[in-house]
Amino acid sequence: MRRWLWSVVVLCVAIGLAKAQGFQNWPKEDQEVLLSAEEDFNFGDLEAAIAALEALARKHPEEPRVWRLLALAYTEIKAYSRAQKAYARWRSLVGAAANEDREAVLYEARALAGAGEYRLASARLKAWLSRHPEDAEAMLALLDFETRRKAWDEVARV
Fold first, then answer.
1. Measured CA distances, 69 to 11, 12, 84, 149 (Å)
2. What secondary structure does DSSP assign to 3-41, as a single string?
3. Domain ranges in the chain?
4. 71 and 108 in contact (C-beta within 8 Å)?
5. Around Cβ 90, how many Cβ atoms within 10 Å?
6. Mind listing the pLDDT tens digit for each residue in 36-78?
């Protein structure tokens, strides 16, 4: 029952978002695949979500919503190199709006740190925090990344 209710909520949100995005021009089956992939992601079936999103990315390479969710899913499975490519593609499609997407900023910083790019991860979070200084989760993530970066710098000096 809970999953069914969530499906209805996702569908309603997607219908609302479709008006603002090119989603309504997609074939109905592709719309359903994206909604299903979003549901799979939300319920932790990352393998199914990624398979569907990769297929959609090939069919609709200009759709930022697909690239964003694909990047988040790659981050969740710790496929950081693929996540970075998906984030780059998403950023190229949405431009400066990417910097105001809190969830994506936090996930992208996590992907960068996971790939050992602590300075880039910290820079992304510092940029976010300069506009949103009250974000405690971002501040904790920044402190974590800075601590790890300093530890790796120490190891490199030995």
1. 16, 18, 12, 27
2. HHHHHHHHHHHHHHHHHHSGGGGS-HHHHHHHHHHHHHH
3. 27-100, 117-158
4. yes
5. 23
6. 999 999 999 999 999 999 999 999 999 999 999 999 999 999 9
Residues 75, 107 contacting (CB under 8 angstroms): yes
Please enumerate in sequence order all residues whose Cβ is within 8 A of that of 26, keeping only pairs 6 or more positions apart, or say none: 34, 60
Q: Taking a C-beta distance cutoff of 8 angstroms, is the pair 23, 65 a contact?
A: yes
Let me know: does 74 contact 80? Beta carbons within 8 Å.
Answer: yes
Average pLDDT, the chain: 88
Which of 63, 49, 144 minimizes the C-alpha distance to 106?
144
Domain 27-100, CATH homologous superfamily name and number: Tetratricopeptide repeat domain (1.25.40.10)
Name which residue leads in pLDDT, 8 or 86: 86
Any long-range contacts for 11-15 (C-beta under 8 Å, 24+ apart)?
A: 11/35, 14/38
pLDDT digits (tens, 9 = 90+) for 110-136: 999 999 998 999 999 999 999 999 999
